[in-house]
Amino acid sequence: MERETNGTILWLTGWSMPDAVFDRLRLLLPDFRHISVDYSAADSPEEMLCLTETSVRDMLCIEGIACRERVSHGPLLISGWSLGGLLALRLAAKGYADGLVLFGATARFTRSKEEFDRGLADAYVRQMIKGILKDQHAVEANFRKIMFTEQEWETGLAERLPHTGSWTTQSLLAGLQILRSEECLSQLPNIDCPVLLIHGTEDRICPYGAGLELSTQIPQAKLITLTGCGHAPFLGKEVHIADEWRRWWHDHWKK
């Protein structure tokens, strides 16, 4: 008997980014059920973390309530981009995921000077926090500038991003505080589900070294390297990624 779907995908977007950024990719994955967590109005880091975990717990019926819905919709995959990838790793480390798909992700966003091939300086994030309190729009616009390579800008890739302004000031600050403090490095060996990593070699926000780090420390990780791509490796490549995603998941879920 065939499963009704290949599973449920819980989507966690990146800092300051509307969930709509995933719309085209979701359309190409009609064989999955899609759910998103909206933390664009979270008032604090604690609320943002609580929203993501509560959403998963509700889906999985953690409190001992029979969950027929989950059985009918198959396994749970969590897909995260950037900040969303860090949140996804946190959930997987707690055993909530049957699989992860991560875009431009890292297990620790801020790094020491010796690890700048894997992250940014904490001072950079602190500067963003100060900037948001003065001119939120300018900080978001500057962040988008460094998301793309020169070639990606010239080809108009950045124009595919939804408009800025969907996050509240407090949620932007909360997300940055999580990026400053949250780390999953120590938990990576304990993630026992299959993980698909998609990372651009020219990512200046979560450098490619962070993707390599994840691929070597997570037991069941597969890394897809996108040469010349910046921090939005799925944008404009949705058809290719949907095909890779489905192939990867079929190989694991059919075992």
Descriptive notes:
With 255 residues, the protein is an alpha/beta fold. The chain has one domain (8-253): 3-Layer(aba) Sandwich (Rossmann fold), CATH 3.40.50.1820. Helices cover 42% and strands 13% of the residues. Helix 8 (208-217) links the parallel strand 5 (195-200) and strand 6 (221-226). It is globular, with a radius of gyration of 17 Å. Mean pLDDT is 92; it is low at 62-66. Residues 54-234 form the Serine aminopeptidase S33 domain.
Overall mean pLDDT stands at 92
Total count of helical runs of at least 4 residues: 9
Give the domain tally: 1
> Which runs of at least 5 residues are low in confidence (pLDDT < 50)?
62-66
CATH architecture: 3-Layer(aba) Sandwich
Q: What's the CATH H-level homologous superfamily?
A: Alpha/Beta hydrolase fold, catalytic domain
End-to-end span in angstroms? 16 Å
Radius of gyration: 17 Å
How much of the sequence lies in strands comes to 5-15%
Globally, the shape reads: globular
Give the SSE order as H and E letters.
EHEHHEHEHHHEHEH
Helix content: 40-55%
Main sheet record = 6 strands, parallel
Strand segment tally: 6
**What top-tier CATH class fits best?**
Alpha Beta
Q: Strand pairing plus helix content: what structural class?
A: alpha/beta
Query: Can you tell me the CATH topology?
Result: Rossmann fold
